[in-house]
Amino acid sequence: MGSGGAALQLAYSDPVSGESVTLKNVKLPWHKEFPMPNTGSRPTAVLSITGAAAPSTAMGCEVLVDGKPVEKKAPSTGLVFCDAMYHS
């Protein structure tokens, strides 16, 4: 998410715990890895990421599962929203 060392506020829903997490003064680029939750015979993960930065800072977002993109947003300024749902 983003580049150039800019700092931003980032919020995401942890797909394992289901809790909302807010991070402040995050340096870009940022990434996070999660283990896939075991939900029985059909694992599912839902991930929602929101980033906010200064209006002049461009940010994008990409969600990968097992190295394959499932959601990608082109860089834009101000806010970025990235939602992805994965079914194995």
Automatic annotation (TrEMBL):
It comes from the Bacteria. InterPro entries: MmpS_C. This is Uncharacterized protein.
